[in-house]
Amino acid sequence: DVRAIEAHHGGDWDPGRLAGKPWNICILSTLHPLRRLDVLLHGLARFLTKYPRQARFHVIGDGPDYKNLVDLANDLGITNSVIFHGLVPQSHTYRMLADMDGGIAWVPQTHLDSQPSLKSLEYLASKLPVLATSTRGHLALSDQGISVDYCEFSPTSVSDGIENWISRGFSPERIAANFEAVQRFDFSQVIQDFHLPLIEDLVQPAVEEATVPGDALRLLPVDPTGGNRPKGMRILVAISSLAAGKGGSERIAIDLANNLLQRGHNVSVAYKDRGNPAYAGEARLIHLPYQEIEELDEIIELGNFDVAVLFSFSERTLVPMAALTKKHKVPFVVQ
Length: 335
Hints:
single chain; alpha/beta; 5-stranded parallel β-sheet; 11 helices; 39% helix; globular
């Protein structure tokens, strides 16, 4: 006899807590100079000058700007209230989010203005209130029935935004409505609604021109029994890394690979070897780790793949992967 219990994630957003114990506020981010987290830290310093013991900010993530940001926090005198946790495995990140009272979705209003913010969805899925920079990507959340609070990309606006955000509070009804609205962004739902249709459209010309029966190439229905299935396509899923991280593209890539395996296709995943994969996938999934881009070139050349799916948030890794697949005349789609 198994009894399911729903556990609430997140804190009690009572404005009166501003005079009580410190709030725990999460900042999920890649620590890269392009993210301009220095601006955010200056904003946190302004807020903490006014409310020195009212909040603790937990920075989760790693990147080339890590040391510079830690040094800046030291210079600003905020290291007692701004904690850098570094790279945290996704499973531990989920546990940390359960202990948070809110999340800041920090995206610069420059070259990343239109980028959808995965971090904001992770906060909402953990039933946390969200303060987000007013980028076009974040403002578009309202089109999905999601309500968050906003600040501009400046230290003053960050400080004022946090103060207004926590002093006004965040009703349970608003949190519940956001949690309901964010369900459409579930990994499995995203794969079913977006990735699989894209792959089907991409390979359809090959299906129509194939000399073997179309059933051997088309995207087959899922066979959960694991029984005999016709031989499918050779599909490459390429991603910059599968090592433990925030779990965005890594998780989607492996979920997609598993789904394609269940549909009877032969799936390989190629990734730069930066440590043990956080998501290994099904036993039938072929892992092709590499160290240098020349090795990926050889993988694509010898793999005789019918189609490739490329995952990366960085143009520096995405462009070389796309160039190699094009070089070897492999049709591809990009996350």
